[in-house]
């Protein structure tokens, strides 16, 4: 549990973060979202004391972080930044092994761990281990950055717009990979972004900031249906519902039995998102989509079923 | 890429032809070799053609051929080899013929006779350097370039080692002073390496300090700037009373020969000059490090010392070494001053030669200084490259 209470950062007359209260349960994927200058990064950097708060406290597991030795604190929190921050004079493997090395792990254990981490983020250690950071593409470098952050198995992962500098296709792939990693490793992730789609796709909960002040802290569904103020609904816009459809999968829905001839209908796997189903309905101008589960037809969904799922109480 | 290559090649043509014509002109120049019955009297200047006879015309042919091969459209590598080899022959051949002429002159006029180079010989060597350098532009990178550019040097080494040049005035001076020569060379090297090492020891931390604590920057570079612009003789002059005073009062200093003249002021002055480029480059290197890399280092909990050793120094190394390179070359030349203030070194030949108007004695001091300077320059460049290997791109 990360407990943020009354956290404030002032630079002379400018208030970057104002009296922020936030409770982040273990294992939650938390997105800090907001327009630029809203204090997102400052919040993140106060968690690992890269920025010293003017007032307020951050407690992790009940312990005030300001009482700890700063290096020890940071080694227990993975840290990923936009420009990767890979060490250009070290091989990929050595980069990934940085924190274990700082923690004084044995050489052998460190390199085994680094190789495992590369595999975890989808890079073959025999191909990439000996490469230098300058030989990597943007997406590969960012994967290595994530591997480095995870190497010492920290319970908390801090990510500052990690996918902001890669091309859209790579970014989407990295986002999906990140979601998989979160499910697999159950880390507490605090992730800063200004990209609404990224926030909607990855988050358990979004903390929306404006001018250093927290506007609302909730799941995307709640933000959509029960926005706390005008800024929240304006920020997400009228297509927020459409964006949220990527968070839900056909498999979760109550399917309708297949009635009559389904041969002419579009077919989608149960793992497809509601957004894909909607796109299919529009594209084929069909009234229903047949859902395939384990290779067999499991039932159909219609436009009404999709709307019913989105309309469910949150 | 292709056009840039073509550009370089066509510019190389102009340079090579200019060099060849320069060599040709120098071969015809009246002041090529000087013959003196002994070291002090005025000599007789002669042209290469007069002294070398038919061989002189052969040299003329070499330069004409070099110019022609540069101009005619021969495939590039072949042209590079031809022009490079001809350019090399131009200088090595000239030196060899001069050595033979000196042998003959000394045989008929006795050992105290001197045959030395006049301006035209140095122009021939310059021309040869220009032509060979231009020719390398037509050669593929790697060993062909290395072979063609270093072959003339090897040729000169062979001439030196086989004694073909030993009757030349400069080599006669060397023969007379050889024992002293090596001692002074060693001393010269000690000045250079000592001053540069001290320069690193002081300049590197000073540069890092100025970068880390911006408030110290004016003080650090204020001092270094003043030291750097002090004229060398004024500097030694200012140190003289201080050092004299110190050595008179502290016996331990007097025991290691610390005096107002001699090695102490020389080492101090050279160190002061060496510090400047090293500190300046260290400062710039530390300030221009990639901010996100340092941010990440802090973010993963790397301590200050670890960050300096593992990250900042290795990343700054190429630029810092570039500063060391400047310091090395600069102190190699600067150490001549030792000859003037009783500190020895190769400068002692230079100043002795100057006082006796014995040009060859001056050269005996100067040529090794030039060679050392070039050597240090190359060596530091290789070191610089070795330390930037991490920046390889796919």
Number of domains of chain A: 3
At the fourth CATH level, what is the homologous superfamily of the largest domain in chain B? MetI-like
Number of strands of chain B: 3
In DSSP terms (H or I, runs of 4 or more residues), the helix count of chain B works out at: 15
Please state the structural category of chain A.
alpha/beta
Mean pLDDT of chain A: 93
**Main sheet properties of chain B:** 3 strands, antiparallel
Description:
- With 314 residues, chain A is of the alpha/beta class.
- Chain A has three domains: 1-76 and 155-170 and 187-244, Rossmann fold (3-Layer(aba) Sandwich), CATH 3.40.50; 86-153; 248-311, CBS-domain, CATH 3.10.580.10.
- Chain A contains 14 helices and 13 strands.
- In chain A, β9 and β10 form a beta hairpin.
- In chain A, α5 (107-120) crosses α7 (138-150).
- Chain A is globular and about 70 Å long.
- The two termini of chain A are 23 Å apart.
- By secondary structure, chain B is an all-alpha fold.
- Chain B folds into two domains: 2-166, Butyryl-CoA Dehydrogenase, subunit A, domain 3; 176-391, MetI-like fold (Orthogonal Bundle).
- Chain B has helices at 2-28, 48-52, 54-71, 76-109, 119-135, 143-161, 169-212, 217-229, 232-249, 251-255, 263-287, 291-299, 304-334, 347-355, 359-386; strands at 33-36, 44-46, 114-117.
- Chain B has a three-stranded antiparallel β-sheet with strand order 2-1-3.
- The longest helix of chain B is centred in the middle third of the chain and has 44 residues, at 169-212.
- The chains are: A alpha/beta (314), B mainly alpha (394).
- The A-B interface holds A 48, 50, 70-75, 79, 81-90, 98-99, 102, 132, 134-135, 145, 148-149, 158 and B 290, 292-293, 295-303, 306, 310-311, 314-315, 390-394.
In summary, what is this structure?
The complex is a heterodimer of chains A (314) and B (394). Helix content of chain A is 38%, strand content 25%. Chain A is of the alpha/beta class and 314 residues long.
